[in-house]
Specification:
The chain is of the alpha/beta class. 30% of the residues lie in helices and 26% in strands. Helix 1 runs parallel beside helix 10 and helix 3 crosses helix 10.
Length: 376
Amino acid sequence: MDSDVIVIGAGIVGAACAHALAQAGRRVLVLDARIGGATGAGMGHLVVMDDNPAELALSRHSIAQWRALVPRMGEDCAYSACGTLWIAANEEEMAEAERKRQRLHAHGIDSRLLDAPALARAEPALRQGLAGALEVPGDGILYAPNAARWLLAQGGASIRVEHAKVDAIEDDGTLQLADGSRRTAPQVVLANGIEATALCPELPIRPKKGHLLITDRYPGTVHHQLVELGYVTSAHHSDGDSVAFNVQPRPTGQLLIGSSRQFGTTDPAVEAPMLARMLQRAIGYLPGLADLNAVRSWTGMRAATPDGLPLLGKHPWREKLWLAVGHEGLGVTTAPGSAHLLAALMTGAGPGFDAAPYAPRGLLEERMSAAPRVHQ
């Protein structure tokens, strides 16, 4: 088929973009190099984040869309409506939990505070002495690689997937493939995560490495996704290494343990000191983890922007090119909202919420002012 849009990348963001564009009546060709990325390496959480209004708007809209999709998704997508408990270690963090509750309530998001006894009843495996938690019951988890494949399959004949590596994007939007062939379409979407900088070096994206570990099957050990309230501060460090407590109960009965953040490296190797630091943090909240068997540990690279928000919109000077990159650790959560917004912009429809905070900006705009631009 002749394509109206080419999407580069078949991870969760690229798949969501292809799905949204097909829903809007576009014929979509998806090009994927099959090298893996953050979709397969991440935790697959669906969590409302409220570090800033733009993050809250995108995650809130996205989770609403996930909820609409879930009844049709296959069991292999492994969706679980486990909710999130934001753990407060002390009274200061409990006060932050209340502020978080107020912010979520102002946007119609259900949440409730748990005092120390209620938290102990909800999650008996947590250590004693914690102050409490904020429960967000609408959050969940899923297995992102299968969810991405499911989204692509929903397009039927409107979505075609081709396993091919894109070597270059020419000024007129033509794509040069590694096998020497070319592809062209009226619009191109760049949605291949950290690999996007190989095709667009001007993008203000850098890798943020993370470690994960999964245990053997221990059903019933943990019932909610557990995250320390200090996670937000850790997650948005712009430099240096950090760890935070984040544990998920997978539908298999396994526990998925995160999280770590490192800048300045693209080495995919598991680093024993960082893994040990992350696990020690987790054991500080869940002492019983020390007695469980680990099955596997691995790493992945998040695509981080300077302000923590994705780049969603038309590239300022590359003809035909649209961007859906820079989602860092929230790609799975925000994929459908990102795709809805981008498809609306590409088709001239109204996205339903303000697109301005995600428009290509910052270092990209600085580069734009200095770059030669033939095509306007």
